[in-house]
Amino acid sequence: MAPGKYDATTPPKASTLDPKVIGPLLVDLRGEIDQLKKVYDVQAVMDFQRAANYLSAAQIFLRSNGLMKRPLEQKDVKRRLLGHWGTCPGLNFAYAHATQLISELEEKGEEPDWLFITGPGHGAPAVLSTLYLEGSFTKFYPDYDFTEEGFEKFVRAFSFPGGFPSHVNAETPGAIHEGGELGYALAVAYGAVMDRPDAVSVVVVGDGEAETGPTAAAWHSHKYLDPATNGAVIPILHINGYKIGERTISGCMDDLELAALFVGYGYKPRVVEYGKVGDAQPDGKTNHENDVAVNYDMAASMRWALSEIRQIQEAARSGNPITKPRWPVILMRTPKGWTGPREVGGHTVEGSWRSHQVPVNACATDHGQFNQLVEWLKSYKPEELFHAGGSGELIDPRATKIVPKKEKLRMGQNTATYDAFEPLKVSDWREFLHSKDSEVSNMKAIGAYVKKIVELNPKSFRIFSPDEITSNKLDACLEITHRDFQWDPETAHDGGRVTEMLSEHTLQGFLQGYTLTGRHGMFPSYEAFLGIVATMIDQYAKYIKMAEETPWRRPVAGLLYIMTSTLWRQEHNGYSHQNPGLIGSFISLPRNLARIYFPADANTSVSTADHCLRSKNFINLIVGSKNPTRVLLTAKEAEEHCVAGASVWKAYSTDGGVDPDVVLVGCGVEVTHEVIAASAILRNHGLRVRVVNVNDLLVLGPDEGPRAHPHALSDAAFYALFTIDKPVVVNFHGYPKDIESLLFGRARKDRWRVQGYIEEGTTTSPWSMLRVNHCSRFHLADIAVEMVCKLAPQHAISADANRIQMNWRHELRNHQKYVEETGEDPAWCTEIPEVKGK
């Protein structure tokens, strides 16, 4: 490509679609715009935008002299210029029109419950600016008040040490979305309005963000929104044409192509485009006609969107719901870097990718660029909007005329975003326990308990699952509720508490939006595929970590993930379904938030689920099993074990675990079953065995230093469980490295062996998975004898070790032959050997 060619800001080429077919699908509001011109105060909206745009640019560039009381100097410029200018004007534009509409509704006596959710998270200068203008920032951060000192401090604080980060996060008033990773805002916006019938989420989705898989799936979210009982979303696709260095996909689509796409999604699209009125185009100078026209267009579009929403909701709430209602979507075309420098160094900036971040990034040292910065800032006429000195108001009333009078109606002060938590109503978990030695599915046991939770919390608890709730044996709740897919006539409009969609990203977004606005939820999924949302969970954890450090944010419900259909019983689906990798991701989360549980039977599963659902702020992971397994503990034993996190299982140990030759540790369902079987085998060969089970994985981690976890065992408790010098064999559900990372620093490597999943698997029999990954009872017994002989060669078993070890290895070969001949495991694989002389 020739130099300079990429600067072109020509519109996308016309599509080959027939405008006679597609054109009518685009909403025409010319009549409404003409009527609006007679009553709408467009100047007030434009003054708010002008003030917000100035503040956005000032935050990116200035470390001092934000009010421009004196001529700007290069020393006033920040030395590290950070931020994303390109999206800011569009965000300010959308925020201004949402704010104006709220104020109009307020004047009519309504109390709108509106949120503003920002997809382009690095557009924080815009969000912070609008929050400052409406007074929300000062409410939560009184030091940033409407004084000269507060104003200057506010301008300086953006992306500055001791200030605020470059993206929207938990420190941002009104935010329920971490702005670090793209793609999640749309789903979060929908989750936030579920079971809040009067709520409206205005969500701006960047056209770069729209290229992500999570956003692509989330466009279907309205199909899970019951208009009778839920609020609504006004999605705004912000098409400014470019991402960091290239055109965007939607930026290269014309109106007809976009109409075809969004009509296909199930929306009614409305295009708002700068510079389109009368085919007028910017002439290289400020085009006031286009500025005014696009504001009228956006005002009419926002009112149209709200009107469409109310028609859909009123129909559903009157008992005559519209089948497959077409919800509004606004396709907003504005120039990237709108109102910024049009050209820098001979290259186009406004309307191109060069405005994405910092347009005049050498202004601190280059006099030419500095002069451009000065002219740019002056173009907003800040002296009209901000008054330095004197006894009057710092911010001119014209800049804040559109701000709602009631503070609670301002989007940055909506209590749903920071103080809406209501405790979950729970039943006594002991009502859902099972007798010891019975055969029960852990997930069935949890399912019965969750059914009661659904019954007790019909408007504040939801289950989000990727079409797997029945497969994962949690379908008991479907006896009293339904799925909520609105395009299915069998489940629409029945208040279903279960959302099943084959997009883990969208479900995670729903869960975040739902819980961050005060409600409760859980996310069960196949183990191998829950890791799809690992980075989303990480982003959410960062949000909660900062929320806990932000004094004005109240706690929210803990998230509960249940990882089931696990690798040990995915032998029928094969190798692709065998992946416990999410466990390692959870170990890396902030230690004060992460909780990882491996309940070994039905009773510990119910106790653990009850604890997780009642938690606040925690990010809980339960690793379960859906197949029937033996109940190993009584109700009292299960409760005590779950409280301790790890304990000696005396019934399966020699003399209650006193003075062992070897310690066998189980962490997980199937692997614990093998530990108990190995204990019986070893005890029959004369070894003294202590069986320890770990339910709360992170008790194994360090109890001191930066990696310490609140649940970590003290050294005294740790060595009381595992001894100081005896061999320890751990049979772990997941990757051995995860346990080894926790033990680092306080375990002698020569006396510890960790067995776990080692990426061996195929379509085979259940017990074969244990065999090929060296986690079977015979492998554990073999390793235990080997380690006892190594650490205590004088032990009586040493003389006979080779014979019994070879017999165990022979049993493993016989099992392989049996499976290959019959296609199933022998009956003894599900049995616990009897201990002789017991």
Automatic annotation (TrEMBL):
Annotated Xylulose 5-phosphate/Fructose 6-phosphate phosphoketolase C-terminal domain ranges read 626-832
Question: Which keywords appear in this protein's UniProt record, sorted alphabetically?
Answer: Lyase, Thiamine pyrophosphate
> One GO molecular function term?
aldehyde-lyase activity
Query: Which terms under GO biological process does the entry name?
Result: carbohydrate metabolic process
Q: Which InterPro entries match?
A: THDP-binding, Transketo_C/PFOR_II, Xul5P/Fru6P_PKetolase, Xul5P/Fru6P_PKetolase_C, Xul5P/Fru6P_PKetolase_CS, Xul5P/Fru6P_PKetolase_N, Xul5P/Fru6P_PKetolase_ThDP_BS
Q: Where is the Xylulose 5-phosphate/Fructose 6-phosphate phosphoketolase N-terminal domain?
A: 42-420
Cofactor(s) named in the record? thiamine diphosphate
What PANTHER family does its record include? PHOSPHOKETOLASE-RELATED
> What family is reported?
Belongs to the XFP family.
- This chain belongs to the protein called Phosphoketolase
List the top taxonomic levels of the source. Eukaryota, Fungi, Dikarya, Basidiomycota, Agaricomycotina
